[in-house]
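User: quick one, fold this
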Amino acid sequence: MSSRGGVEDLGVTGAPVALERLRALLRNEGGLIATLVGEDDLDRGPTGDRAVSPASVAARGPRAQGRREEYELLVEAIYEGYLLHYGSPRVVRTPEADLRVLAGDRLYAIGLARLVDIGDTVAVAELADTITLSALAQGAGDEPLAEAVWAAGARAVGWGPSEEHSRAKGLVAAGSGEAIEAMRTSMLVMPSTP
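Assistant:
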């Protein structure tokens, strides 16, 4: 993620332990997904720098208190699904585009199902919106906006949504030129209730 409104702004560094846990989870799943788990550079981003994960942001929030490791793992799974669709995945390796999409969808499902098991419907909604809005941004060729959507979405999972974040999501959905600044600003606002 870039430093332009990304998760670095929250003072978060990579989460190699969470990635190792994700690797173990996928191997335990068995089947095709287990055969796609890679061994190398799990804590490095697409450009070789220390990876910064939205999962770390979400896990540090008060909404994740008492379940920080679980939140970090499930958000990491969902984020890895996103990276399979649009970026450079850190855990799952496949050279085939169709298989990347299927693996990404499976990771989305794993993470969201774990959220449902926890009973956190607010986080399910936030991450579903994050997946959708980041896909819209990627479809428009706006990677910085997609990064801002992920950073703000992770913040909303950990700290709770705010009116500013809801407004920013509406601007992204509408394709507004104000969307990226609104999304970045929404990360700075504390919600009224976590």
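User: anything notable?
Assistant: The two ends are 25 Å apart (CA to CA).
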